[in-house]
UniProtKB/TrEMBL annotation:
<dbReference type="InterPro" id="IPR000115">
    <property type="entry name" value="PRibGlycinamide_synth"/>
</dbReference>
<dbReference type="InterPro" id="IPR020560">
    <property type="entry name" value="PRibGlycinamide_synth_C-dom"/>
</dbReference>
<dbReference type="GO" id="GO:0005524">
    <property type="term" value="F:ATP binding"/>
</dbReference>
<feature type="domain" description="ATP-grasp">
    <location>
        <begin position="111"/>
        <end position="319"/>
    </location>
</feature>
<dbReference type="InterPro" id="IPR020561">
    <property type="entry name" value="PRibGlycinamid_synth_ATP-grasp"/>
</dbReference>
<dbReference type="InterPro" id="IPR011054">
    <property type="entry name" value="Rudment_hybrid_motif"/>
</dbReference>
<keyword id="KW-0658">Purine biosynthesis</keyword>
<comment type="similarity">
    <text>Belongs to the GARS family.</text>
</comment>
<comment type="pathway">
    <text>Purine metabolism; IMP biosynthesis via de novo pathway; N(1)-(5-phospho-D-ribosyl)glycinamide from 5-phospho-alpha-D-ribose 1-diphosphate: step 2/2.</text>
</comment>
<dbReference type="GO" id="GO:0009113">
    <property type="term" value="P:purine nucleobase biosynthetic process"/>
</dbReference>
<protein>
    <recommendedName>
        <fullName>Phosphoribosylamine--glycine ligase</fullName>
        <ecNumber>6.3.4.13</ecNumber>
    </recommendedName>
</protein>
<dbReference type="GO" id="GO:0004637">
    <property type="term" value="F:phosphoribosylamine-glycine ligase activity"/>
</dbReference>
<dbReference type="InterPro" id="IPR037123">
    <property type="entry name" value="PRibGlycinamide_synth_C_sf"/>
</dbReference>
<keyword id="KW-0547">Nucleotide-binding</keyword>
<dbReference type="InterPro" id="IPR013815">
    <property type="entry name" value="ATP_grasp_subdomain_1"/>
</dbReference>
<keyword id="KW-0067">ATP-binding</keyword>
<dbReference type="InterPro" id="IPR011761">
    <property type="entry name" value="ATP-grasp"/>
</dbReference>
Length: 429
């Protein structure tokens, strides 16, 4: 098969790295890709939101399968676009259509969906500018902290956890009155704060059948011990020690099966990944959010643990024969540490020369925000720059491998967290 991956981050490099190992893959392309994907595939300089450009590239390169990495093209309807054109009808896409992508594209839709199909989640109410006064009154009745979510996509910045009522009121007004998140904040979901341990479970479905992939825990805050601003993710660990077989069985029965039943009941044929953000509260799963693609940096720990042929897994998903596929999972622990640009998640500079990649040993290095300076030097091109994934028979050794590799890479302003996985080591003790 000729396969095209859409995206340019660490998730897409992980996809490309895994698929390049398959005998099923003849030619592999990534649009637009990064300096890492260029090592295992051919980068195509096309934006994943340029549907006409993606279609043209797919036809030119005889693409049979497209794996959509980020959420934005899915929410914008790339699957519907391909289905609407007769000349593209033979090309299969891994990713839901626009109706299915609402699970991530609209927090209000996903909360109503969970309530309708009895999926455990935090209690919530949705407000618009027209119901501003009612919303402000509602905020005063809630216990602290209070969670406020912009309804639409806000580049991972649309969730506010207010520790004081005054902060909640300020954030509420900023979204609905000041338009802080643009159209994404035209509706605001206000919900109960859930206190527990967070993790992510990943489901792959062909529309009828499903497979549950390895679970993971990521580290969202910029600072050690989960302090400071939220980021796209500073590291991840898989498997998760506090998610035992009993808990994961509850996730399957109380969350996964009702979610897939709900999608079928709504007439939505959902093909692709469902990333379920969960809270483990005293052994019970509660859904924080749905995402309609794989997570980043979680993909960088989930894919290395999948021992089966990943291209064949994707092909089975596209064909609707996922039930016949046997996924083999490594029992080893995977830990990834993310290197970021100085100043991230605020303002940061690009174009810093990266050195030391050739000295990295015993880990898988995934490029995220990188590009080429001319034809030779690899330079920074984003907030999150690289992810170092170490695998070992113990969490301690996987952490050591990942952290040691993070120290080897050099560029001006480099920063990474030194405590990825350490909370789980303490939890195990």
């Amino acid at each position: 098969m000729n396969i095209l991956i859409l995206g340019s981050g660490g998730r897409e490099h992980a996809f490309a790295w895994k698929i390049a190992q398959s005998t099923l893959c003849d030619n592999l392309f990534v649009a637009p890709g990064n300096a890492g994907t260029a090592l295992v595939a051919v980068n195509i300089p096309v934006s994943y939101n340029d549907f006409d450009g993606v279609a043209k590239a797919a036809l030119e390169h005889n693409i049979e399968l497209i794996i959509v990495g980020p959420e934005e093209p899915l929410v914008n309807g790339i699957v519907d676009y391909f289905e609407s054109r007769a000349d593209l009808s033979k090309i299969k896409l891994i990713g839901p259509n626009k109706a299915g992508a609402q699970l991530e594209g609209s927090k209000d839709f996903s909360k109503n969906f969970m309530q309708k199909y009895g999926i455990p989640t935090a209690s919530s109410k949705t407000f618009t500018a027209d119901s501003l006064a009612i919303g402000l009154e509602y905020l005063e009745t809630l216990p602290l902290p209070i969670v406020l979510k912009a309804d639409g996509l806000a580049a991972g910045k649309g969730v506010i956890i207010a520790e004081k009522h005054a902060e909640a009121v300020e954030a509420f007004n900023e979204m609905l009155v000041d338009g802080k998140f643009g159209a994404a904040g035209n509706k605001v979901v206000v919900e109960q704060f859930l206190k527990g341990i967070e993790l992510s479970v990943f489901v792959l479905t062909d529309g009828e059948n499903y497979k549950i992939l390895p679970e993971a825990k990521d580290y969202k805050r910029i600072g050690e011990n989960d302090t400071g601003l939220n980021t796209g993710g500073m590291g991840a660990v898989s498997p998760v020690s506090f998610a035992d077989s009993n808990f994961l069985r509850k996730v399957e029965e109380k969350v996964v099966k009702p979610t897939l039943h709900g999608l079928n009941s709504e007439g939505i044929k959902y093909v692709g990944f469902i990333f379920i953000g969960l809270m483990n509260i005293k052994g019970e799963p509660y859904v924080i959010e749905y995402n309609v693609r794989m997570g980043d940096p979680e993909t960088e720990v989930v894919l290395p643990r999948i021992q089966s042929d990943f291209a064949m897994l994707m092909a089975s998903t596209a064909k609707g024969t996922l039930n016949d596929f046997d996924i083999k999972i490594s029992p080893q622990v995977a830990v990834t540490t993310v290197l970021v640009s100085g100043g991230y998640p605020g303002d940061y500079e690009k174009g810093k020369v990266i050195t030391g990649s050739e000295k990295v040993e015993d880990v898988q290095l995934f490029h995220a925000g990188t590009t080429f300076n001319g034809n030779t030097e690899v330079v920074t091109n984003g907030g999150r720059v690289m992810a170092m994934t170490g695998m070992a028979n113990s969490l301690e050794n996987a952490v050591h491998k990942s952290q040691r590799a993070a120290q080897v890479i050099q560029y001006e302003g480099k920063y990474f967290r030194h405590d990825i996985g350490m909370d789980l080591i303490r939890y195990n003790d």
